[in-house]
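Page 37, top half.
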Amino acid sequence: MFLFAWPDEDVLGAAQVGDQFPLVPVAATVTDDSGAFQLRLDDPSVLDRFMTGDDAADLSVMVPDAGPSAIHEFSLERAQLQSAQNAARVEAASRTRDKAAGVERRIALGLSKAAAAGATVDWSGYHEKALVCNSQVKQNLGPRWVAVGETYNASGVHSDFHLLAGGTSTLGVGVSGSGAYGSYKSTSTVKKSAESEVNFPATSDGQNRQWATQYEYKKFLVVCVDPNSQAYEVRPTAFVTGVDYSSPTPPSATYCASYVAGSGLTKSSSTAVEWSNGAHLGPAIGIDLSAQSGFTSTVKVTYAFMEKRRLCGTKGYPGDSPVRLVSKV
C-alpha cells in the first residue's frame, strides 16, 4: 500500500492533453492480518514542494493491483503539516476487506503523537521497492460550475456571501476503471483554493440563492506498473472564477435565534453544507461531484436585519454549527 503525492496546482493547471508526469511515492506500508494499516511520514516537510497557492498537497493512497476501487484521494493542508511537526509524523489509518466488487475502505487522516501501531516498510532503498505510477492528461473538461454558498432572505433581511482570496473548497474526485461515461464513482475529495476574491451580489427581501463559481476539471489516466493497474480520475486543476446562481426552495430549518432591526450576524466558522451534486460534471462524465465550502474567515455569509426577524439553522443554532442558515419572519 503506497502514498503518492501529485504535482502542485501550477503543474496540473498548466498541463495540456497528452502531458504526463510521475506521481511521487512518499510513504508505504503493509496491512496486518485484519486488513488494518497505517501510513507514516516521518518528515512531513517532504510535502512542501507539492504545495503552491492553495497551501495543500494532493495525495493518493493506492493498493497495488486492486483497481480503481482501492484508490483514495485527499488533501493535506500546510497548517496540518505545521501542526504535525511536533508529532514528526502524518498518519493515514484504514481497514480494508476484500469484496466481490473490489476493496472496501474506511480511510481517515490523523495527526498524532501516539506511537505507530502496525508494520511499516523499511524505506532504505525505496526506489527499488516503490510501486511506479504515472499520470497523463487525457481530456480537459473545461470550466465547471461549482456551488460554494447559499443565502435565504425573508422580507426585511439583506444578505451577502463572501468568497475571499484563499477561500478553500473541498471538491469531489471521480474515479473510473474504463473512463467511460456513466462509469465514474466519487468516494474521496481534494481541497482547492480561490486565487482571487469573487464579488457576489447582495440579496434581500425574499431572494433565495445558491451561489456558484467555476473550477477547471481535467481527466487523467493513472497507470501503475509492477504490478500493472490503471484508473481514470476527474479532478479540479485550476480556479476559473465567474458568478452564477440558482433560486432554490429554502431547506427546513428549526434551530432559530431572534434579531431586532439593525442587528446582524456574520457566520465565519463551523462546517457548511456539502452538496453531493455541487460540482456540475454530469454532462461530461455521467455524475455530478461533491462540493463543500466554508464557513471560514475567507468563505462566510452575513445577514443584516431591517426588521425584527429570525435566523435559523438546519442542524444547529446560528451561533453554533448550523450547517445551513435560513432567515424567517
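Page 37, bottom half:
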Amino acid sequence: MRLPMSARSAGIGLVLIAIILRLGNGRGFGATEYAQLTVDGLRSGSIYALIAVGFVVVFNVTKVINFAQGAFVMLGAMITADVYSRSLTGSDLLNLVIAASIAIVLTTAVGVVTDIVFMRPIRKSNDLVKIIVTVGLFTALEGLALLKWGPNALRLPAFNTFLTDNPRDTNYRPFGLLVKGQSIWIWLATITLLIALSWFFTKTMKGRAFRASASNELAANLMGINSVAMATVAFGLAAALGAVGGILIAPATAPIYDMGLRLGLKGFVSAVTGGLRSVSGAVAGGILLGVIENVAAGVTKAGLRDIWSAVILILVLLYRPEGLFAGKRETEKV
C-alpha cells in the first residue's frame, strides 16, 4: 500500500534525525553538545528567517521569486560597515545607529527602484523572464559592490561592544552553553521585526490592502486597491528586511561583496521549506534550516555545512513541494 506523502515526509525526517544522532554518538556527543549546536543554529536560522520572509512578501504579491534578495542583505551589511568606519560623530553608538539607518533607507530605495524600473515593465511577462531579471539584478549589484568596496572584507564591531568597555563580544554561559551577545541581539531584533510585521499586516489599512492584493489581485483592484503600488511596497519591504538581516549578521561574519549569494540561497531554501505563500512558514523554515545544517555540520564536517541546505531543498521539492508548514490552499508550483 502506498503511504501518503505526509507520512513519507515524516519518515524521511525521522531517518535523517536517526542518522545525525548516530554520527553524533560516534563523536561522543551528548545533550550539551547537541544543545550548543542548536543554539548556534538558532542564530543563523533567525537571519535566514528574515531573508525568507522577504522572498515570501514579494512572491505573495507579484508571484516572482526575487533572487536579488541576497544582494539586499549584502548592501545592508556593506553600507553599514562603510558608513560606520567614517566616524561621522564622536560616539561609536551613534555612528552605528546612523550607519544602520542610512543602510536600511538606501537598501529600501534600491528595492523600490528594482520594482519600478526593472520589474514593472515586465509585469505581464512569463515567470522565467522575471526570474532571469532578478538574477541579473543580483549579479549587477554584486559587481557594483565589488567596484565600490573591493574584494576585501569590511568590519563592524559586535553590538555589545558599544555598551561596555570590552572590545570583544560578550560571552554568556547559561546552563553550560556558550551564547554570544550578538546572538541575543539577532534574536531580539528578529522577534521585534516579526511582531511589527504582524501588526502592520493585521492592524493597518496599508497592510490589509497588501494582504488583499496577495490573496486576489483582481478582487483587490475592483475594490480600488492599486496592486501595482503594492508590488512596489513588497519590494521595498523585502529590501528593508534583507538590509536588517545583513546588519545583524555583519559583526558575526565580516561583510564582503559576495556574501549575498550564500545568504540569499539559504533564505530561498527556507522560504521553500516553510511554504512560499506563508510568512509564518518562512520563519519556521528559516529556524529549521539553521538548526539542521548546524547540527548536521557539527556531527560531520564544518565544510559540509552548505550541502545540507541543498539536501533539504531537494527532499522538500520531492516530497512536500508546497512547503512543510503550508496548508492545502497555499500549494504553489515551484
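Margin note: The mean pLDDT is 89.
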